[in-house]
Design a protein that fits this description.
Number of strands: 13
Shape: globular
Number of domains: 2
CATH architecture of the largest domain: 3-Layer(aba) Sandwich
Bound molecules: UDP-4-deoxy-4-formamido-beta-L-arabinopyranose
Strand order of the largest sheet: 3-2-1-4-5-6-11
CATH superfamily of the largest domain: NAD(P)-binding Rossmann-like Domain
CATH topology of the largest domain: Rossmann fold
Distance between the termini: 28 Å
Amino acid sequence: MSKILVTGGCGYIGSHTIIDLVENGYEVISVDNNSRSSSKVLKGVEKIIGKKIKNYKVDLCDYNDTHAIFMENDDIIGIIHFAAYKSVSESVDKPLMYFENNLTSLINLLKCVEEFDVPYFVFSSSCTVYGNPDEIPVTELTLPKPAASPYGYTKQMGEQIVSEFIKSFHANAILLRYFNPVGAHPSNWIGEMPIGRPANLVPAITQTAIGKLKSMQVHGTDYPTRDGTCLRDFIHVCDIAHAHTLALNYLIGKKNKAACEVYNLGTGNGVTVLEVIKAFEKVSGVKLNYTLGERRTGDVIAIYANNDKASKELSWHTKYSLEDMMRTAWDWEQHLEEDETLYGEQKAGDN
Ligand code: WQD
C-alpha cells in the first residue's frame, strides 16, 4: 500500500482525512505534537476504521525530530500537511508565533521531501489567501488581496514557498484552499474539538445550544450583505477530507498538468452568519441564545467559492447539505456531552 504522512493527524480535518485515506486503500501515519489537539482523537479514528494509526508526537519546527520520522519511514510516497495554527483572531494578537510555527514547520517538511525524494505533497491552504475579494465567487485565478490577518499571510506565504520549491525540485504538489470546514463524521466518534472558548462560528453555536456557553455573539450586523452579517462558504469536513484522497489519486495517477496545482474547496454557496443560526435552530429544534455585537477584527466581509476546477479535474462533488452540517455538528456536541469517556475535558497535549 502507498504510505502517506499526515501532519496534524490528531486535528479536526486531519483526523477526518485519515479515515477517508484508509477507506480508500492508503496506509497512513500521523505526526502531531498535540499542542492544539488530543491524541485521543486517534482512538475515535480507530473505532471507525478498525485499525490503529501510529502518531509521532513531534514538533515539526524541530528539524532533527522531523528528519528522524523519514529515516524510520523511507517508504513515504506522499505528505498531506495540515499541522499549523489556524485562529484568525489569535494570529492578530500573536503574529510572530504564527509566522514562526506555520512557516518553519513547512520548510522543515520540504527539506525532507528533497532529501528523501518524496514525490507528492498536498498543502492545506485556505480561502483566507484571497483577503477581501472584489468579486465573488472567487476562482483559483482570483488575484489574492492583502490578507486580512497574519494567519492569512502564513497561508499566502506557504503557497508561495511550496510553489517556488516545486519549481526547483521534481516533486508534484497540490494546494487546497478550504473555505469554512464544519460538521462532524456521521459516526459521532470524531468531530471539531476547539480548546477553550471556540473562535469559530459552528462550535460556538453548538456549545451555546448545549449550555457549555451561556450565549454567543454575532460579530457585526452592518456589513454590505443581504442581512448585514458576514457571508461564508461553509462546507462539511467529510467533503473536505475526500478531496484530499482525490488530490493524491490525481497526483499519483500523474493527471496533473502543472507540477503545482491549486483548487478551491467550497460548496459554491454563500451563506450568512444569521442564515447558519437559522439552519441550526431548524435542525436542532433549539432556540439559540445569541446577541448582535460589533464587527471582529480580521474578518473578511463576504467570500464563497467557484469550485468548478476541483469538480472537473479531481471529479470532486460535495455530498453534504447545510442541514447535514448542522445536524452532524449538533449530534457530535451532544455525544461529547453524554460520553465523557470519549475525550473527557478536551486539553491540549493530553495523551
Ligand atoms: C465565520 C463568521 C465571524 C464566531 C475560518 C477558519 C480559518 C479558515 C477560514 C481554514 C465570521 C462569525 C464567529 C462567533 C460570529 N479555515 N462568528 N460569532 O473567520 O471565516 O475563518 O475559516 O483554513 O482557519 O478560522 O471562520 O467560524 O471564525 O467565522 O459571528 O462566535 O462567523 O465573525 O464572520 P473564519 P469563523
